[in-house]
From TrEMBL:
<dbReference type="InterPro" id="IPR050128">
    <property type="entry name" value="Sulfate_adenylyltrnsfr_sub2"/>
</dbReference>
<dbReference type="InterPro" id="IPR011784">
    <property type="entry name" value="SO4_adenylTrfase_ssu"/>
</dbReference>
<dbReference type="Pfam" id="PF01507">
    <property type="entry name" value="PAPS_reduct"/>
</dbReference>
<feature type="compositionally biased region" description="Basic and acidic residues">
    <location>
        <begin position="295"/>
        <end position="304"/>
    </location>
</feature>
<dbReference type="InterPro" id="IPR002500">
    <property type="entry name" value="PAPS_reduct_dom"/>
</dbReference>
<protein>
    <recommendedName>
        <fullName>Sulfate adenylyltransferase subunit 2</fullName>
        <ecNumber>2.7.7.4</ecNumber>
    </recommendedName>
</protein>
<keyword id="KW-0808">Transferase</keyword>
<dbReference type="GO" id="GO:0004781">
    <property type="term" value="F:sulfate adenylyltransferase (ATP) activity"/>
</dbReference>
<dbReference type="InterPro" id="IPR014729">
    <property type="entry name" value="Rossmann-like_a/b/a_fold"/>
</dbReference>
<feature type="domain" description="Phosphoadenosine phosphosulphate reductase">
    <location>
        <begin position="32"/>
        <end position="258"/>
    </location>
</feature>
<keyword id="KW-0548">Nucleotidyltransferase</keyword>
<comment type="similarity">
    <text>Belongs to the PAPS reductase family. CysD subfamily.</text>
</comment>
<keyword id="KW-0067">ATP-binding</keyword>
<keyword id="KW-0547">Nucleotide-binding</keyword>
<feature type="region of interest" description="Disordered">
    <location>
        <begin position="280"/>
        <end position="304"/>
    </location>
</feature>
Length: 304
């Protein structure tokens, strides 16, 4: 792309062009890729980018979601609806299946299943022979993700070694791997949360309803709002409040908290996002608060 052409593009145009380029690189270099689609806002953007990269043909990869069995119903229903609208194959593998096989064993019945998705993901990769998983992770979300390459190499055990990463100079990407190894590709790695919401606004993308302000029963714990659900019921002594909230990120119910908000439109969410001083995972993810290295350790074990 010439310097003149680059200067005439908007910021979003440039991010979109880079992401489409990465998607096409994965499709061209990898024989059996898969796009991870949870129904969350980042993976919804990934679907639109895939449409622009490959339509009017079919996607050169299926969609896949690793379901903990404790995901928000609004999100999984949206996941199924969107995949059906696109006419693309959706593979769903569940942590509950791994539990039934004995490859995942919870320490206690109420232990979060979120970190155990790594096991189910690696099992699905082996089952289908995928050699690349395309995800919507972004560097601004968390410091372990900030130092990960766009094409992230994983060894035959699914492990990530932050000290052994491939150079990515001048947007030249190496997605090649040997049999049994795997690439995790992150086309929107350079996007911010604000970029994502601006893209959603520009493309008029539909989202699950829980991204917008609604009233929900919660319990205040450790500076976060824990939603009261069948999976996470209130405990004796908890004070349950009905609070107007929205979700900045979605995942397993046991570790994803909403934030107080009256933003019920994309325009209002854009204003909130532009003025916040806390990252979305910092404000909402209980699993990242166990230690400063929680995410990095999970990635080393095969996490997304």
């Amino acid at each position: 792309m010439s310097t003149l052409t680059r200067q005439t593009l908007t910021h979003l145009d440039w991010l979109e062009a880079e992401a489409i380029h990465i998607l096409r690189e994965v499709a061209g270099q990898c024989s059996n890729p898969v796009l991870l689609f949870s129904g969350g806002k980042d993976s919804i953007c990934m679907l639109r980018l895939a449409e622009k990269a490959f339509r009017p043909g079919r996607f050169p990869f299926p969609l896949m979601h690793i379901d903990t069995g404790h995901n928000y119903k609004e999100v999984t229903d949206f996941r199924d609806k969107r995949a059906a609208e696109l006419g693309e194959r959706l593979i769903v593998r569940s942590v509950e299946d791994s539990m039934a096989r004995g490859t995942v064993v919870l320490k206690t019945p109420d232990e979060s299943r979120n970190k155990h998705q790594s096991v189910t993901l690696l099992e699905a990769i082996e089952e289908f022979g995928f050699n690349a998983c395309i995800g919507g992770a972004r560097r601004d979300e968390e410091k372990a993700r900030a130092k990960e390459r766009i094409m992230s190499f994983r060894d035959e055990f699914g492990q990530w070694d932050p000290k052994n990463q491939r150079p990515e100079l001048w947007n030249l990407f190496n997605a090649r791997s040997h049999k049994g190894e795997n690439i995790r590709a992150f086309p929107i790695s350079n996007w911010t949360e604000l970029d994502v919401w601006q893209y959603i606004e520009r493309e008029q993308l539909e989202l699950p309803s829980i991204y917008f302000a609604h009233v929900r029963p919660v319990v205040r714990k450790n500076g976060l709002l824990q939603p009261v659900t069948d999976v996470t019921p209130a405990k004796p002594g908890d004070v349950v409040e009905n609070v107007q909230v929205r979700f900045r990120t979605v995942g397993d119910i046991t570790c994803t908290a909403p934030v107080e908000s009256d933003a019920d439109t994309v325009a209002k969410i854009l204003l909130e996002t532009a003025t916040t001083t806390i990252t979305e995972r910092g404000a909402t993810r209980m699993d990242d608060q166990t230690s400063d290295a929680s995410m990095e350790q999970r990635k080393k074990e095969g996490y997304f």
